[in-house]
Amino acid sequence: MHDVAVFLAEQAAQLYAKAAYFQLFGEKRRGHGLRELLGALARDLEAQGYAEQARAVRQFVVEYRDVLVMLEDAYIDSRYGEASYDEGDVSKAVEAVEKLMELLEGVVRDVVG
């Protein structure tokens, strides 16, 4: 059930990113692509004067790009195709999502208080 685990990791990351966006800006963010969501978050943080936090989000996207692509593919493949993931993929996905949650928690704490 590795495919389900990777899909659920993607869902957790997507919902967490949307929740952080809502906490920071009081607006619902639409879309499903993790890189798109995180890019919008970084852009809007920078526009509000939070350059350090925006830089941290961008750095995360660069560092975890391959895993974010895998997670986005898992979202799409769960609806339109068949995905095949292994235990290593699950570990990478869960680790990245945990790091993302820590990062976003810190960003929200820095900005909102």
Brief descriptors of the model:
single chain, 113 residues, mainly alpha, 5 helices, 82% helix
Care to describe what's here?
The chain is mainly alpha-helical. It has one domain (2-112). It is 82% helix and 0% strand. The chain is built from five helices and no strands. The protein has helices at 2-25, 34-47, 51-63, 65-80, 87-112. Helix 1 packs across helix 4 (65-80), helix 1 (2-25) runs parallel beside helix 5 (87-112) and helix 4 (65-80) crosses helix 5 (87-112). The longest helix is centred in the last third of the chain and has 26 residues, at 87-112. The radius of gyration is 14 Å and the shape is elongated. It starts with a helix and ends with a helix.
Distance between the termini: 39 Å
Structural class: mainly alpha
Percent range for β-strand residues: under 5%
Biggest sheet layout:
none
Please identify the oligomeric state. single chain
Number of domains: 1
List the helices and strands and how they pair.
Elements: H1 2-25, H2 34-47, H3 51-63, H4 65-80, H5 87-112
Helix pairs in contact: 1-2, 1-4, 1-5, 2-3, 3-5, 4-5
Summary, kept brief:
The chain is mostly helical and 113 residues long.
